Amino acid sequence: MSPEIQERSHKSRSRINNLYLLTRPIRAVAGGRRLFGEFLRSEFSEENLLFWLACEDLREEQNSERVCDKVKEIYDEYVSVLSPKEVSNYC
User: Fold this and answer.
1) Is the whole-model pTM more than 0.70?
2) Virtual CA dihedral for 34, 64, 88, 39, nearest 10 degrees?
3) What is the CA radius of gyration of the chain?
4) Domain 3-79 in CATH: superfamily?
5) How far apart are CA 48 and CA 23, in angstroms?
6) Can you give the pLDDT of all 91 residues of the chain as single tens digits?
7) Ordered DSSP codes for 10-53
8) What dihedral angle (degrees, nearest 10) is formed by the CA atoms of 61, 15, 1, 51?
9) Rounded to whole angstroms, what are the CA distances from 76 to 37, 79, 90?
10) Cα–Cα distances in Å, from 14 out to 19, 50, 74, 89?
């Protein structure tokens, strides 16, 4: 892997880590996800929260068949250029 790609990958992981740490208090408070979702809807970025929640759900899945199904669902819903809720991917 080239140094440039390694640096970009490191920055992406760092951003994801920071987001995870910043949202921890929101996730810990009852209704926090709902309030955060309302904020994101008002900012036209609800799809990012939905994508993140889908990925969190995927991480907890134990059934390997369901993992494959969920990966396809996430791709179709949030990653594909044809998806209705395509998330921004700046990586």
Assistant:
1) no
2) 0
3) 15
4) Regulator of G-protein Signalling 4, domain 2 (1.10.167.10)
5) 13
6) 566 665 665 566 666 666 667 777 776 777 777 777 777 667 667 787 788 888 888 988 999 899 999 999 999 998 888 888 888 765 4
7) HHHHHHHHHHHHHHHHHHHSTTHHHHHHHHHHHTT-HHHHHHHH
8) 40
9) 21, 6, 18
10) 9, 21, 22, 15
Residue 1 has which token pair? 């892997």
Q: Which two tokens stand for residue 43?
A: 């900012």
Three-class SS of residue 61?
A: coil
Return the amino acid letter for 74.
I
